[in-house]
Structure formats: C-alpha cells, structure tokens
C-alpha cells in the first residue's frame, strides 16, 4: 500500500468520457454502472447502465422511490459495494479496479458517511463518538470543532440517550466530517425525523458543503429536499430518469414538505 492514500488505487485504464474541463474538476466519473443481485433463481437488477459525474463543491440530491437504485449507487460511490459491470473513477483512480485493502483506505481517508440510523456508540459521549474517527484520520478536526459546525458544542459531553434524534444525527454528521473527507454521502439522513428536526439536520449538511466545500450527495425519496441542491438526479428502475439543475438553491429553512 502506498504511503499517500491519494495514490493508493490502480490508475484508470481509460479516460472518462467527459471534456477536458470536466476531467479536471470531476470528483467522480461513473460509466455504464450495473448492479445485479442474485436472489436464488431470481436476478434483481438494481442498476441498469448508469452514467454519472459529481463535481467539486457540488451538492446533489439523488431522488427516487424505494427500489429505484439510489442507495446501491451511493454505496458503490462510497466503496461499500462494487458494481457488476462498468467503471467508477475517483479523481483519476479507478475504484472498480481496487482491491478490498485499497477500498478500505479510500473509505478511511476520503469519504464521510451519514445514514438514516445514527450508529452512535451508547457508552460514549458526543465528543467521544466524534473522536473515534479523528484518531484514525491524517489531518482531522478537533472533535469540538466538528461539533461546533453542527451547532452541538453545548451537548458535547452528553451520551446518545440524552440527545434527541436530530441531535444524534448531527453528532453522526460531525463524526463523518471530522476527518475532513473530500466527499460526504448521506443516505436518507432525515428519514427517521420529523419536519422541524429534519430541517435542522439539513442545515448542518448544507453548512458543511458551503463552508468546507465538501462535495455532498444526499439520497432521499422526499422531493422537497431537491430544491436545496445544485443538481437533482432522479432515478427510476435502476436508471437515471432525469437530471435537473436548480438555478438557485433554497436554504433548508425555505423548504416545505
């Protein structure tokens, strides 16, 4: 394994199908991505030839109903799953040619994950939950700095059971960003929350994208959230059905659902 994680993946065998400008600024380039799950004698086609580019500092929403393939796509971008065919390139490094050790390094240094369920350790305080990530990162934030970004400094020494659902989700966001990832991938981050609490969580995610410049992808079935994105990528039946660019992004507090 190379010492520098930026050079730890096999180089792409072929250049992405994009313009020279896009190649310089693209964080991800995915081409002809398919994913098929074999369920006994039945094949489930989760993705059916997806092409996708994500760019620096961009905020995108992957929108679609359950079963549309959006979570599968996010997991492939995050190195949690591999496609059945196609290529995924992260900054000129081909993830689809990487082995498990390379993917572990990729996830460790480059990607922050936020899931619908918070996955906090109950016996650790908010500060300690965030510190778990900073101990394995190369240039991490101080845990309190990460908690401050999500407006939770006063709750730093509280345990998860002493926090609301929205506060726990914001701790999970602080944990994800504390290692200063290049990319933040969020899977239904407001799915278990009420409207008011969901907006507070979206404010935290939007602030990370705006202030840190972290490329951010949020998957959701809630169409209202799409108004805060630079681009909205709608999926249906494992394919990209539509791509919409918002001329002006709404702030989370402007959303209505």
The CA-CA distance between the termini, in Å, is 47 Å
Flag low-confidence runs: 5-23
As a percent range, the share of strand residues is 25-35%
- Rounded to the nearest angstrom, the radius of gyration is 18 Å
- Could you give a short account of the major beta sheet? 6 strands, mixed
Shape label: globular
Looking across the biggest beta sheet, what order are the strands in? 6-7-8-3-9-10
Question: What is the arithmetic mean of pLDDT?
Answer: 90
Secondary-structure content class: alpha/beta
List keywords for this structure.
10 strands; 257 residues; alpha/beta; six-stranded mixed sheet
How would you describe what is shown here?
The longest helix has 18 residues, at 195-212. The chain has helices at residues 20-25, 70-77, 100-110, 126-134, 143-149, 165-177, 195-212, and strands at 26-39, 42-55, 59-63, 85-90, 93-94, 111-114, 183-187, 215-220, 231-236, 239-245. Helix 6 (165-177) runs parallel beside helix 7. Residues 5-23 have low confidence and may be disordered. Helix content is 28%, strand content 27%. It is of the alpha/beta class and 257 residues long. It is globular. Strand 1 (26-39) and strand 2 form a beta hairpin.
């Amino acid at each position: 394994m190379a010492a520098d994680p930026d050079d730890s993946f096999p180089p792409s065998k072929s250049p992405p199908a994009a313009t020279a400008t896009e190649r310089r600024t693209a964080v991800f380039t995915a081409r002809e991505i398919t994913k098929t799950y074999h369920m006994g004698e039945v094949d489930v086609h989760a993705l059916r030839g997806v092409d996708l580019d994500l760019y620096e500092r961009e905020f995108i929403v992957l929108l679609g109903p359950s079963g549309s393939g959006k979570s599968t796509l996010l997991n492939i971008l995050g190195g949690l799953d591999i496609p059945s065919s196609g290529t995924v390139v992260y900054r000129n490094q081909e993830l689809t040619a990487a082995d498990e050790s390379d993917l572990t390094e990729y996830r460790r240094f480059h990607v922050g994950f936020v899931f619908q369920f918070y996955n906090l350790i109950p016996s650790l305080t908010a500060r300690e939950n965030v510190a778990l990530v900073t101990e394995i990162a190369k240039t991490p934030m101080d845990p309190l700095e990460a908690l401050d970004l999500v407006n939770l400094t006063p709750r730093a020494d509280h345990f998860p059971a002493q926090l609301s659902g929205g506060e726990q989700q914001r701790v999970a966001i602080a944990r994800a960003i504390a290692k200063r990832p290049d990319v933040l991938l969020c899977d239904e981050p407001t799915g278990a929350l009420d409207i008011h609490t969901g907006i507070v969580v979206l404010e935290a995610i939007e602030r990370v994208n705006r202030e840190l410049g972290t490329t951010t992808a949020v998957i959701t079935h809630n169409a209202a959230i799409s108004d805060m994105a630079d681009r909205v990528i709608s999926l249906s039946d494992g394919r990209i059905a539509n791509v919409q660019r918002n001329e002006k992004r709404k702030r989370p507090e402007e959303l209505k659902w």
